[in-house]
Records
---
Amino acid sequence: MVDTTKNTLIYTTSGRKVAKPVNPNVAGKMISKAKRPLLVVGAELLKDEKLIEKAITIAKKGIPVAATGHSITALVDKDIDVKYINIHSLGTFLGDKNWTGLDGQGSYDTVIFLGHKKYYLDQVLSGIKNFTDLKALAIERHFMQNATLSFGNLKPEVHLEALDELIENL
Amino acid sequence: MVDTTKNTLIYTTSGRKVAKPVNPNVAGKMISKAKRPLLVVGAELLKDEKLIEKAITIAKKGIPVAATGHSITALVDKDIDVKYINIHSLGTFLGDKNWTGLDGQGSYDTVIFLGHKKYYLDQVLSGIKNFTDLKALAIERHFMQNATLSFGNLKPEVHLEALDELIENL
Amino acid sequence: MSDIETGKFSIDELENVQITIGKIVGAIEKKAKEEGVEVGPTPKPGISGLRDWDHKLLSRYQPVYTPVCDQCCYCTFGKCDLGGNKEGACGINMEAHQARETLLRVITGAAAHSAHGRHILHHLIDIYGRDKAIDVGPSNLVAPNTQAVTGIKPETLGDLEEVMDYVEEQINQLLATVHAGQEGAAIDFESKVLHGGMLDHVGMEVSDLAQMSCLGMPKSDTEAPLVEIGMGCIDSKKPVLLVIGHNVSGVTYIMDYIHDHNLDDKIELGGLCCTAIDMTRYKVENGGQPRAKVIGTLAKELKMIRSGVPDVIVVDEQCVRADVLEEAKKLSIPVITTNEKIMYGLPNRSKDSAKDIIEDLSTFKDPGALILDYDTLGEVAPELAIKMSKIREDMGIKALPSDEELQGLSEKCVQCAACEMDCPANLPIMAAMKAGVDKDFSKFEELHDVCIGCGRCDQACPKDIPVLDMIEQASRKIIREEKGLMRAGRGQISDPEIREEGVNLVLGTTPGIIAMVGCSNYPNGTRDLYTVADEMLKRNYIVVMSGCSAMDLGMYKNEDGQTLYEKYPAKFLAGNLINVGSCVSNSHITGTAIKVAAIFAQRNVSGNYEEIADYITNRIGAVGVAWGAYSQKAIAIGSGCNRLGIPVVVGPHGSKYRRALIGKPYDEAAWKVYDARDGSEMPIPSSPEFLLTTAESVEELFPMLAKNCIRPSDNNMGRMIKLTHYMELSQKYLGHMPEDWYKFVRTETDLPLAKREQLLKILEADHGWEIDWKRKKIISGPTMKSDVSAQPTNVKRLCKGEC
Amino acid sequence: MSDIETGKFSIDELENVQITIGKIVGAIEKKAKEEGVEVGPTPKPGISGLRDWDHKLLSRYQPVYTPVCDQCCYCTFGKCDLGGNKEGACGINMEAHQARETLLRVITGAAAHSAHGRHILHHLIDIYGRDKAIDVGPSNLVAPNTQAVTGIKPETLGDLEEVMDYVEEQINQLLATVHAGQEGAAIDFESKVLHGGMLDHVGMEVSDLAQMSCLGMPKSDTEAPLVEIGMGCIDSKKPVLLVIGHNVSGVTYIMDYIHDHNLDDKIELGGLCCTAIDMTRYKVENGGQPRAKVIGTLAKELKMIRSGVPDVIVVDEQCVRADVLEEAKKLSIPVITTNEKIMYGLPNRSKDSAKDIIEDLSTFKDPGALILDYDTLGEVAPELAIKMSKIREDMGIKALPSDEELQGLSEKCVQCAACEMDCPANLPIMAAMKAGVDKDFSKFEELHDVCIGCGRCDQACPKDIPVLDMIEQASRKIIREEKGLMRAGRGQISDPEIREEGVNLVLGTTPGIIAMVGCSNYPNGTRDLYTVADEMLKRNYIVVMSGCSAMDLGMYKNEDGQTLYEKYPAKFLAGNLINVGSCVSNSHITGTAIKVAAIFAQRNVSGNYEEIADYITNRIGAVGVAWGAYSQKAIAIGSGCNRLGIPVVVGPHGSKYRRALIGKPYDEAAWKVYDARDGSEMPIPSSPEFLLTTAESVEELFPMLAKNCIRPSDNNMGRMIKLTHYMELSQKYLGHMPEDWYKFVRTETDLPLAKREQLLKILEADHGWEIDWKRKKIISGPTMKSDVSAQPTNVKRLCKGEC
């Protein structure tokens, strides 16, 4: 079992509310239990073929995907439910009760983030943290202090392992 | 043994560098080992007769005392080495290599704080943390995030107990 | 003047017209010359104009940084953690950033004052025209700050516009330096801080001169009327119109409407914060009686609204709680915003009829309205209050919880400490809750005076307990009795007063001026102000009040039922108690110091800031106390005092301003000046010991005040008096003789006569001084000579023989 | 004029003189009337003047807050954690505070620009006098921003002073609202943000108009010369004089000295940041050749200094690293500060002789000097560079580590990740260190272009490894080849150009203007700029550059060895590449949009901001891109674009500005306007979709650019062109057809001809539209009609029949 909760060093502090470090099995179960989860993948994904695979595997478990940046280039035609959206727009719409989601099926309750620029996601999560009730789960290689739950800072290989374990628990 | 390291809740964050929670026995030993310790007591001390006693007991172990605010009113004529000084001045002088201390005997290496307003001490410690190499030990009832080492947030009665234990270890 | 057309036109179409043209290079000098005034070296100084002076001050009083946050988040290169004085992504280090943070606070404060000034100046010029004469009482030097800084001697409202142009240009220059990639050195950010502080006093002065000249406010009036003050003085049975803020422009229309429509007895008009002070100054010159009551400071805002008593709230600008509209909405109180600085997102009804607005607000169509037309405002506010009073009574608006509910709410408390953690003063709320379970609400009552009414406890509570409401309900008896008297702000100290008292100040025989200014963020409740003022007044100090402190002082009575304003006279004389006025009247305090240099000492004032500041630094024993300083304005005011060499003590919360200016008494090299007679160096006492610092408690404050009034120019009588107070206050409040008293002794005649022998013995025994016991004279020991004819100066160029 | 004496004087002493009097109420209107210009409803608007317009924009484009910090530390009531939108001690909630934070950034930026403008205006008036005519090329509308905002049509330098007075007054009013206890509603802070942004463009315009008029800069010159750019273009064998900053006032004296003393070939004069751009604009009108080289942006500052190449550094103001003096000191490079905004604590040598200063600096008596006298500066800087070059060579100054040392340093690395954590872009430094142990320094080389040269890595490293030096040393070959060409800033778009191109823009047949502005905080290196510009230019967009982006674009060459500046012409026509100039030249971009409304569409411009903005919003397909936005100036510029309805995309770092303005395409009610012909409501496409937002990568950016150039006024040809680019770019860079392309289709003629049939099929199959296949016409489906004569407006009063 990979312990993803250890190194939670952050770059700068933001406030008192800080993400809870989470282990992959717990994260996996949490996603499974979610009524309307959404996997949000970013363009950093494209830098690692293996990460792309993990994202597709998660998506194939029936989790709809929002592809931000140009990450969709690696996800089209992969037989998964994926749509492009700008992450700043997404962050906003997620907090809007009138938004019916990427597929018109209603709002999401759990949002999972993978493959984003750390400093950029930190900001998007800050908006979600402060202005919505959403559960935000960061399964990134870095500890995302503004998420609800987050992996700690991990080495790339440990990160991939952790994602595997998460997938097992879906 | 009192565990003083548990509740380290803070009011607002300040930066990445945060005080290490410390137990009274460790704190006590640390003071004993110091070459030039200084106990800095503040006027909040005057609100609790028992706290005054503890401060005097520590002082009687041969530790010179800087009395800030009007705390000196409870410490004069107690056969201890005590001098009044404004805490903002003290915080400044402590970082000045040319200051020879309250007694002209040279600079201090370890400064212990007791009986201060939380928000006020937090600021003084911020200056010490960022601009000096001093060891700042807060043995207050509240966790002082800008100290080098600090007790956590304690109930008044636990605080007194912790001070007793600290004294035993001097 | 005002009917001159704008644009280009040829002169020969006009006759017998006076035209004032500013902005020509050298204009100030030429104008001054025509008027026979000598202009000093720095009229309208830019950022570097007084930098040498600043660096002199800063070499003695070194910046002490205590960051509130270790991080910088100004630009998107960052955010950067600068902990341990590391550099950020732009290369700035912690010290420079903290100095920049201070600068930002100071110019924010200066902007608040000067933007207020610009607004009221526009407004008054619209009504009275540019030619309206400035009239502030029996003074020739009407604008000491303005004249010392800009070299302009303003005579009309129009003249003040050029002054404002200068202030705005300079503040904009300073704000620019806050940008990423500007100043890199802490010391030069500090110089900019002092520049900003200086500008603040000019901005304040303009504001107050303009309104004093036009609005019938007291003009250096030592007999300004006494005004009712306190939450308890509001008769809640009448319709209550509550005004909050600082800028009285719109409020005067409301007051006129009430007066003109004989509604004075039918409406309670109460004010919070400095608008309240200025309301009570309106039309009270020449014996007019105040037409409004003062409720109190910012600390009373939330409490007053939560009481449910106001029927309408009018806000203008500054120190107005941001949640006024939200809080008022809950209690069906319409809110009217009247100034562009605060609009609360409300619809702009400035062009609508009073009738329509009243209709819409009284039917709750909108929770409030923005009204920038003051004629409309004047009618809407009182008429709506009358209407709402009935409506709200019929609705049976319930504000505070009942005593029964208090107990229930206490029971909800889980003692989690969230409230105490977030309370700015960490007040013992949990203990009050615990007692409340047993129907003992006395601990809530105890909280009332020490609570600054910020409402953070309510926000923090995970159980949604309305802590502040509970405090207020439990304290309703105290609140009902919260009534006192404040002397209406008198405006500046007149030239004749300076002529009378100047010598005593400079020689020290009047022991000092204690200026108690500013906000209501006290560490230990409002009563401390009373304690300090009373003690210092008894000791013959001149105590000057302003703003929120002036209000809070009026809330306490002595055993004879008298407030200090009743007990002490209000002239500029030893042992007198003066309220100069509202926040912008703080400029009169620095103005007083400048006047002593200009009028008593005959120093040239126009554009001669450095020499004036140097004079004040070495000769005028004044200490500012901003005990409850919370705002950016407070640090701006303090910094303006600092550039003149006037030291300021703030309460412990003031440590959150991030930086102090503290001298090192043990560093002998720092305590030297030139003797202007020959340019030789002479040692001076280490006083003031600081330019800006904090104190922990009033007990600590007392000896600090006395000691830091000591100046090199004290004669023996003066030094003796000051030293006596220092020693006595130290013994009274700290329980011991101060360690350093002997350092201020130059000769045996500096020692208090009654204790002279005893003190000489100590000097001999403890400090090794040689005493001639026969003549009871000191033979050797002191590091300073007593020489009243010495002319201490920090500025080499002012010495004889220097150019 | 300039010989008129100031003060009061009687008219009959003067004859045949023209006097301009400003500041009289109604002055602007009267002056305009005399000149036959109609003045709109809002000359010199105050904070509330354009609030209705702002609230309209903000109801569609809602503020999105992403706090950088959950806490507020403005006043000493706090610090308060506002997490979860809680209220602070003053009652402000998180949303309002974040809006206030944004406001503070915006006015800081606006102050930086306008304080620069005020400085250079003072300076140029000192030299050329108030009557010096404004001359910026073949335009009648010389100051579109100024005229639209203030109603003033400036003709001389003197006229610009009144404009600056207005800007400074308003910025001061805005700064005041940052104070505790002012505005409480986020929406009204947002309106203030837009006000600040608008003021910024006026301030910038004043700056550039003044310098263009006096300093021989190109005046709407489509043939502005090409300038050498890049670290590689500096010949380090010569004495190197490095200038850093934004304000060219003092630098021109250095350039003149060099030229007048025939030193052009003997000294390398290189500039960093916008000073560099303006140095190359100096005296190049009418065929003059640039007398300086551009080194690059802020991102090159530390690298350039650390290279040890400069012999003297001169800084002025803005975007100058705060550690210049400290860094320069280590390499024995004297630093000269020349502007009050940056003084670095250096001694003021302004009154000393050049000889003395050169002597003291070349003997390292002081590490630098403050010189505010530009005559002295002009001599000292080059002469000192010549002297220091020899001295420093003799000293054998060593800057970067050798290759051997690189390996040793790599070995010191303990792979702790501190550097990567603190690196603003989290660059993979550890991997480079790892490879460095094996003498493979290629990974350091890869870091060079993506590194913004901030030096945080050095600060973070617990082993004191000089990471940045290692990157630079490893990249020395690349750096040597870093040379390109930039077209010197041409200034504003002229009226004739607008007349020629306006119609294409409004109808959409020129697909849009892409304005690539601002700083060098790129998420993925500088090359992305080239990629974007080239792609859009090929597609016939007009690409406009300014500031740091304009520089970085010049560093890349295509396969033919050409930079884009060489490849594309520089007129205001489709497919042209324009460099307007330095940071303050950004005002010409908004100015262009205003000109289209004023000149092409004949809308009244003076004091008529709302109508102009409304016109631009609905008709001009322009998108701003500040891909490397880092500074407060960038957000100010963006906010000024936003008030005109021009959308701006910033790079991912821009999320740290804390707030975006994003519309909701799914909220149909938000995408409606009036048809001014009859006041009826009409649906419009959801474009621009945002006013300010971020993009993650240039690949994402491309389709955003194309889509957000769509406007209601597009004719069918225009819409077809825009839609084609949107679809093509989406397919090219995102690998798929955009989801929402069909929403922009009004009629079959909006569809690209080549794909029309295929797209009609999709419309039928996927979206249920009815198609008449015989005529290949859409029968039903679109929500919008295609009606080129419709007059879309957001402003009711502009509709026929409204007053």
---
Amino acid sequence: MSVIVDYYNYWVVVFLMMAGFYTVIAANNLVKKIVGLNIFQTSVFILYISMGKVSGGSAPIVAEGITTYSNPLPHVLILTAIVVGVATTAVGLALVVRIKRAYGTVEENEFKDKDDLI
Amino acid sequence: MFEQHFLILPIVLPLMAAPLCILLGQRQLAWLLATLVSALSCVISVNLLYAALDQGVLSYAVGGWAAPWGIEVRMDAASAMVLSLVTAISTLVLIYAKASIEKEIDSSRHTLFYTAHLLCLTGLSGILSTGDAFNLFVFLEISSLATYTLVSLASDRRSLTAAFRYLVMGTIGATFILIGVGMLYMQTGTLNMLDLADRIAQSGPSRTLNTGLAFILVGVSVKLALFPLHMWLPPAYTHSPSAVSAFLASTATKVAVYVMVRFIFTIYGVEYVFHNMGMDLILLLLAIVAIFKCSFMAMAQSNVKTVLAYSSVAQIGYMILGISLASAAGLMAGLLHVFNHALMKGALFMAVGAVLYRTGSVDIKAFRGLGKKMPLTMAAFVIGGMSIVGVPLTAGFVSKWYLVTAALEQQHWLIAFLILLGSLLAVIYIFRVIEAAYLKKPDESAASKDIKEAPMLMLIPMWVLALGNIYFGLDTTLSVAAAESAAQWLTQSSMSVGGGQ
Amino acid sequence: MILETISNILLIVGAFFALTGAYGLFKFPDFFTRVHAASVTDSIATILLFLGLILRTDFDLVAVKLVFVLVFVLLTSPTASHALAKSARHGGVATLAESNNKDNTDG
Amino acid sequence: MAELINLLLLGMLAVTALGVVFLKDLFAVVMLFGIYSFLSALIFVNLDAVDVAFTEAAVGAGISTVLMLGTLSLTGRQEKMSGHKTLLPLLVVVTTGAALIYGTLDMPPFGNPENPVHQHVALRYIQDSPQEIGLPNMVTSVLASYRGFDTLGETAVVFAAAIGVLSLLGLPKQDRAAIESGLESHLVLKVVAKIIIPLIILFALYVQFHGDYGPGGGFQAGVIAAAAIILYALVFGLPLATQVVQPGLLKALAALGVLLYAGTGVASFFLGGNFLDYNVLAADPVAGQHLGIILIELGVGITVFAAMLSIFYAFASKAERKNIQ
């Protein structure tokens, strides 16, 4: 029982990550691949934030009467990672727009019929 | 007064030059600035290399905060060696790029090309210098984003799909590394590499650390295109502009190899990775499969850039093979091959780029008769090709020699034999191109008659690298000393940490 | 004490309206009635919930911030509903009455 | 109670993620992703990460979703076929998931204050940073000072993304003839937009300069300010927006922000400190830290604002051109 209380958070996060990961590698549409990538990354963010939580703690902003704070370091790391994520998303979507213009399609299986693999 | 800041300058200089390029807005000025900054970084890096060989390790606390609370920039022989290599190649590629991109990239995007190149250089220098596991991820992403841009700059539409595939796989790899670093942090509470090594040695193996290692290794393997995660590399190298292919082939994957070395030897330690988890066998098998599968793939291609791209994946196999031997000699051979392979692939891709510049094609048919029309370019190609094969008196021979010696040192006769057999395959795919250039008759159409030698700005960097192949094949003092000291430093620190258990 | 009771009542009623809004969003038959249900959540439920929350503060900076948020939501949410409905109309989505008429004439 | 809310939110996340996997309507998929982002922002609040929640809501649910919708308008909203190769991906995913579950089994338990994560490096941030840096928001202290080098890298990433998108899509040309566009008939929208756009910009400034004391900072402020202009462009049309905030200016601003950040670091060289050492920027170390953090947060804010807005411009200009054709 205590195993479940201790780890349920991580297990759900693993499920979410894998849902995103599956979407990236199995989706046929390039936009959906990017959405999957985002879901994958967001789930990893939840993993990091989960490890920074202290039961009974509060947000790491100094306030009177509070002695237990959650760990600020994972928050900082994830702030950076979120920015990296949106940067990748923007470039990826720009590529999708260009691919649509150059090939007329964004469906992966339709490329294989033409001259390129993706 | 800047000596104590030398460690950070190879990162900060290109980082500040990149936005300056945008502000200058004029492509000639941007080129000049980028080349100068890159050359300056190179001078500083070589300086650092000598300092690192002298003093062992250099450290710099960014923001004045001591590690592990702040981010530390650390330089030892291994990082200084690869950093000197990367900055040197970057400078040569920038000189080469000026002429090369004229024909391959729309002129309105030249400033963006130089900016992206500088950002990529920033990222690579950052990866090589940092002593912090998360900071490494950030710089990895800077270099990756810049790389996706660089690949997609070519006017060929296939560069778009190549860049997209690279982006998806690269981001998955980076996210895997992020998961792995998270697991490390979760178990140790720190991100500084040395501190991590101490705490992993204290706590001993655990499932979380094992999983973390697995994820980091898979993530890095995507970045360094280890078979079977190499699928992004051939299209990316084939369809990107020649200057970009030359730069990426000789730096990006090399830096990824360095990251793998860092995680295996500095953070986890040989004991943990190879003895407890048995990673050496997996890496060894993948490396050998990579050498053979991709050498055969290289033989079947008609696009010379694709030939070279598959050859890169095969050569990466040699580097990983050296690492997987788990000995100082093997690691040293691996690092030496990192250095030498950068020289040969740089020269080869530059030669192919020059052919593209003059003939407009990189198909093997376009090479027919070029031995007479572009003698200097093809001579550089031959030197680079011989180096890949491992002909004596070239740099490639030196690293293959050390690799075979390292394998024999551990009585791995079969591995030594396979390394030699792999070189034989390289003879075949390189010789196909050389045969076309020197032995086949050119087609006598009107267009092919005015093919001339490549312009000076392309020939000079190409020949610097080609001569580098010969120089480091004859005089091995610097490269071998650097690789040896790097390997000793890495295995020693890893052993001493392992011994602390 | 009294404040807390009032706050509780406000919060419960607010939550009730939020729930009905969500329920309506699923149950109502066409686009426009659904927008109507959704805007119940935006307006009355938001007002009640925020008032309930304000009563729970010490009437300090937090209360002021809550008032700001409330004003902002009251400005934007109805506008969003309006824009939705108008675009739907513009794009040719028929109301319930219209589609009924159409069915009758067709039949 | 907090655990219960957490569990509920995680459940909703799981449902949303499944929706993304199985739905074929890409518009719905993108909307579900926005919801996914919002839900994870709620989880972040519940797990005490207010700064992260703020950013996730602004970026994931805001900018990313807008960009995805913009892409959809150009590429079509239906995924034509899927499941052309489900077995291998499923195998890969199950293996990876199994490896992760295996890894979790001896992880430090969730929320336990004895975990190594809370015992080592983080202690100094929590105990000493209010004195060393002088700011109540520890996240800002760590972000801008202890790990300021990471944040410099992050700014460079945003800049790199802007460069990438510009090289792929290009910036819109200023076209005075096309000024009469936008949502002409939506009078209510126009009036309300006029009221709230100044408020949004005011809020962005508040977030920018209050980030030292509460949640917020340069990144969030930059995104919010960009959102204000994006709203303007949506309601009044892209050509008018490019008159107000010119694309060329944005390019320069994005570069200037990076230079401001790195320049602050270099200034420390000349004052005798290490790179990004703010202690030397003023006579008193704490005052120096404060000055340094304000400067670099400003750099981050400027770059993020300019980069996000030029990325939006690039996407929007492609959409507009398509509509005209």
